[in-house]
Design goal:
eight-stranded mixed β-sheet; 522 residues; alpha/beta
Length: 522
């Protein structure tokens, strides 16, 4: 929704800087909590470029909570497109392939399936998920932190007018070249810019080479080809040539296809592949999320998804502090919980790229030694389970003051591999299991804490005020799967991660109250 710019001196709870998927998701989440937001985006409209291509299974769980999973899936490709195919040219047969597990079909670990869909198809859905103010063509120029607020200086590119907005907090989701991060002087850890890529969006009839073997990405020696929308359209990703001004893009795309094809180039975008994690995600009342906090190379489609998980972790904490049932210290757990995830995700993306280059290197060696014959299929350096990466997206475990282990200060964050093993231990996402009414356990979570127990009557006398709390009956068979005694309980945070676990009924009336006090730093 586009609306009038606030007048000088206007106040909001949270100023969101950046109107990509991460900022738009934060806006929708905060509106669910009743938090007043203003989102500013320096572009004059949503991005027309496909950019991110994959909504993984964890992001789709978050979008399910926002009642967006169905419209996102309806506009996305069919599940069989959840595959990467390696080819010498687009019209050649596969010499290797990999499934995107959790996208190419359902998995028992989740009630949803991820989707292959372009960012320019996703963003309008996210924009329509909330009604709070959005202002396109408005750029953040500067920030001044005060004791109880942040004063932001904004410039409207339409009329040149400048204005100031006072916000209790600022959520910066303004990309890898973040103005907010630069203004705060927050350094980035990692290699930085690792390459330059050009995206060419074009129309061409390529169905004869792709329809019978669909994929979300076709990796060839002449660049990557991606179908953009179910109804048509393609993109070509290639290292940026030296002479971009004089480039014959239609001719280059046509030659890279390896066959005669009529190519109609629609857009060309040059961009930098960055790889870094910010040295900290919080600076007083200003918090970084998405590419502003960590730039993840595109191999594996992890970048946007880790940003969506950032704000899912952050927004309930902001709401708690703003509404008074959490202390400001709760916001410190955002950095402690999410920055280790960003570092592991960056490492995984680098490893993904290494493995994909390895496949292409082996293929080049095969072609050089083939002497005119067709080389054999390449055995990829991964298994289908490896490329699932469910351990990275569903197996995230948090270690901070917002998780009670019952054993004093917890150690550092546990490492998660690519294999996901469901567990109901504190810090982990609650495993997906079906409840008696056909809902998932994940459907029990929202703008509240949840007490999952097979013995709700034993916990009814406990005190939870002033925190929002719901008691959710848990089928007895699930307690056995989770090794939870019949009168035990799990305290689940609004983001679906387990805050505390009790093996027996409440030892005293203050048990739940004390746990929530500790978890929320109140």
């Amino acid at each position: 929704m586009q609306s009038e710019m606030p007048v000088a001196g206007a106040e909001v709870d949270v100023l969101i800087v950046g109107g990509g998927p991460v900022g738009l998701t934060a806006r929708a989440l905060l509106e669910r909590w009743g938090v007043r937001t203003l989102l500013v985006e320096k572009r004059r409209e949503l991005s027309p470029f496909p950019r991110s291509r994959l909504v993984n299974v964890r992001s789709m769980e978050i979008f399910r909570q926002l009642e967006l999973a169905e419209p996102i899936t309806a506009a996305a490709f069919a599940p069989e497109y959840g595959r990467i195919r390696f080819r010498d040219t687009l019209h050649a047969p596969d010499f290797a392939s990999a499934a995107m597990i959790g996208v190419n079909g359902p998995v028992p670990e989740s009630p949803v399936t991820g989707a292959v869909t372009s960012q320019d198809r996703l963003e309008p859905t996210l924009l329509g998920a909330a009604s709070s103010e959005v202002r396109f063509g408005v750029e953040l120029l500067d920030l001044t932190e005060e004791d109880e607020s942040v004063l932001a200086l904004l410039a409207d590119h339409g009329d040149g007018e400048r204005s100031r907005v006072r916000a209790r907090y600022v959520l910066a989701a303004d990309g890898a070249n973040s103005t907010v991060r630069e203004r705060l002087g927050i350094a980035a850890e990692g290699p930085g810019a690792v390459g330059r890529v050009t995206t060419v969006v074009f129309d061409a009839d390529l169905g004869q080479w792709s329809a019978r073997q669909p994929a979300g990405v076709y990796l060839t020696s002449q660049g990557s080809f991606l179908p953009l929308y179910p109804e048509g359209g393609w993109a070509w990703f290639v290292p940026t040539p030296q002479d971009t001004d004089g480039a014959d893009w239609p001719g280059m795309v046509s030659r890279s296809l390896g066959a005669d094809a009529q190519v109609d180039v629609l857009r060309v975008q040059h961009w930098v592949v960055n790889a870094f994690v910010a040295e900290r995600l919080r600076h007083g009342r200003i918090l970084l999320a998405g590419d502003a906090a960590h730039a993840i190379p595109p191999a594996g489609g992890l970048g946007m998804n880790v940003g969506v998980a950032d704000v899912h972790n952050l927004c309930w904490k902001l709401a708690g502090v703003l509404r008074g049932w959490a202390g400001p210290g709760l916001l410190d757990t955002y950095d402690k919980e999410r920055r280790p995830v960003a570092r592991r995700t960056l490492g995984q993306a680098v490893e993904n790229a290494r493995m994909m280059f390895q496949v292409q290197d082996v293929r080049r060696e095969q072609l050089q030694a083939a002497a005119g014959r067709t080389p054999d299929r390449v055995e990829p350096p991964w298994s289908e389970q490896y490329f699932a990466q469910l351990g990275l997206v569903l197996g995230v475990a948090y270690r901070s003051e917002a998780v009670l282990t019952g054993a004093g200060t917890p150690p550092g964050p546990p490492e998660t591999g690519t294999t996901y093993i469901p567990t109901a231990e504190p810090g982990h996402r609650v495993p997906h299991l079906w409840l008696t009414d056909g809902r998932s356990t994940l459907d029990a979570f929202g703008e509240w804490f949840t007490l999952l127990t097979a013995a709700p009557a034993h916990w009814e006398s406990t005190t939870a005020a002033p925190w929002p709390l719901r008691v959710e009956p848990l089928p007895a068979e699930h307690t056995e799967l989770w090794d939870l005694p019949p009168q035990g309980a799990l305290l689940v945070r609004p983001d679906g991660h387990i805050a505390a676990r009790w093996s027996d009924g409440p030892p005293g009336d203050a048990t739940l109250h004390d746990a929530l006090t500790a978890v929320t730093s109140r």
